[in-house]
Amino acid sequence: MRWRSEDGFTLIEVLAAAGLLVSAGIVATLGAVAMLRLERAAHAEAVGLAVATEKLEELIAATPPARAGGNDGTELDGVPVTRIWRVIAAAPAPGLTRLEVTARWDRPRTTLLTLVAAVPSGAVLP
Amino acid sequence: MSRLRRTDGFAAVELLVASMVGALVLVAGIELLRVHARVARGLQVRLGSLGGAAWALSVASRDVATAGGDPRRSGVEALGRAEVGRMVLGADRDGDGGVDPATAERVTLAWSSSGGGRLVRWLGTQSTGIAATVRSSGLRFRFFAADGSELTGPGGVLDDAKRARVRLVTSDLEVTERSGTMAETTTLRGAAALRTRIEER
Prior knowledge:
The complex is a heterodimer.
Chain A: H1 11-61, E1 70-76, E2 79-89, E3 96-105, E4 111-120
Antiparallel strand pairs in A: 1-2, 2-3, 3-4
Chain B: H1 12-66, E1 79-82, E2 86-90, E3 106-112, E4 118-123, E5 126-132, E6 139-144, E7 150-151, H2 160-165, E8 168-179, E9 182-193, H3 195-200
Antiparallel strand pairs in B: 1-2, 2-3, 3-4, 4-5, 6-7, 6-8, 8-9
């Protein structure tokens, strides 16, 4: 019986076993690298969402005449983010103003995130 | 008989070489496992830190956004206190015309030294930590007027007149997550406009 043989292993068998072990090591390492990359992407997305939300809230808090489009660059927790925002009057309907903030960051990969809100163009209450 | 199938045992040199190769493979395998374990633990700590900060800021931002709810128009104060490390928010959630300080109508967000430093949220008189570990300088509230100017006061405390002008609150939060000797710090920012004040202008 093969599993009770006293002849030892052939060179091919040893090479095949070593190859399997190395393959398993490579697969595990690739998996770990992919996880690290995903974690960096998740971190960058959390930062991008935070700075985009910050600008959107700034626009919401501003008085209607003070709202204007623009762009800037900011950095949070080591992630540089570029922001572009637009203020579109009478959209999506008369009496409303559409606010759009797009955040872009390039690490670990170029990503764009756009947040949109609609706010009253003027006073709501009498 | 072939060299690979002989039955007369191994020479000492063959045994030594085989032992060395086996030891190398074993050491490499163990090191790989250690590296993977370290990477996995590091990931867990970093994600814990990031998730903790993001969640706490989402809670704080929602509290700010809903502060000042005043269905009876009885003059509820949205911001009871506004300091760099402490904020008291009020809202008439049950529509009885006032803010009951013993209930969730009054929300306090502040840094606490307990447990090594935490961001604590009080709902009335009940408190719970929503982020840890947070250094004393790891929590910073900033207050802005409608024109975008930052409102500050002596010792970081806003007086009544300035509190009445606040339209936007930002929260800078630095959360450190630890596991054994590993520590990861995440700094995030939350922001929220005081919706009720915007409606009234």
